[in-house]
Amino acid sequence: MLIEFVTQPQFNFLTAFAEALKVPVVNNELQIPSSLGEGFVRRVDLNDDFRLLIHRYRLNQELILKRIGSTEPASFISVIFYNNEEPGSLITDGEQKQNFSRYNDMAIQIASNNLDSLITFPANAEIYFTVIGLSATRLKGLLELNRPDYLINTIVNPKESFLFYESMGTETQMTLKQLSETQSENGLGGFYYRLKAETLLYQVFSQLHNRQSTSHNPVNKADAEKLAIIRKAILSDLNRPPSLPDLAKLGGLSETKMKDLFRQVFGDSIYNYYQTARMEEAAYLLKHKNYSVSEAGYQLGFSNLSHFTRLFERHHQQKPKKYASGG
């Protein structure tokens, strides 16, 4: 199933999705029919230029969401919180989900409305993500910055396209879980959703604020596609450091532009990003594939296990052996 849409402020995704599924929208909520899967999509209008769209469902066929960037100036912002695991499993101590996410670096996307995107969800996948859409003017009023921030100024006073990714912490996971739960009819539902939406925005913009950026380069569709290719190449081989010349050639960028754009979009250098991915992969191998510490270390290219242990502890605040045992 393909849902194609243009990211204009007046676009109603819920209506378009309902038409594609041939189901009604009742009280701003769409229920997935049992013949197609299960779950819901819920829209919450917090203001004319501020809304939430909560996706939580499973379809028995592949779903492709194709967003076509608007030709209008980048005045409307989408903040997308991705997590395709059951939300209740994200922060509990029960059995681990089978679909454990190794890499958390792209869990939150902040993008202008003039960039394209293509998201594919396999059939029978648990689809769980939330979108906050709001105008740049609304966001600027909410943030009320009391000291200059070049990066955030790029977003709230958009003169060019932008794209940023952030990781998702436990507090954000908890807020998303609360958003997906049905609210009691006590007359305060709008206030509750506004509070949670503003909490999510505070959490993600606190992370962006901590980057302390001093410059910004426009990111067009071609740049975004090239960065996706480079990221994929880095993650495809974690047992040796990436070659910057090879990555630049693969992406069709100069080394300087590649390094600057990568740091701008992902918030870290290519090498630090690679090391973080190694440690996320190590955690996955230890806890979900039952690798020993030495097996995980050697799998990821470490010949010195003491060095592996130090890096792992720095990243996860635990030694790998203790982490593997659930300590």
UniProtKB/TrEMBL annotation:
The keyword DNA-binding applies. Residues 228-326 form the HTH araC/xylS-type domain. Coiled coil: none annotated. InterPro entries: Homeodomain-like_sf, HTH_AraC, HTH_AraC-typ_CS, PchR_regulatory_protein. SMART domains: HTH_ARAC (SM00342). GO terms for molecular function: DNA-binding transcription factor activity; sequence-specific DNA binding. Transmembrane segments: none annotated. Keywords: DNA-binding, Transcription, Transcription regulation. Pfam families: HTH_18. This is AraC-like DNA-binding protein.
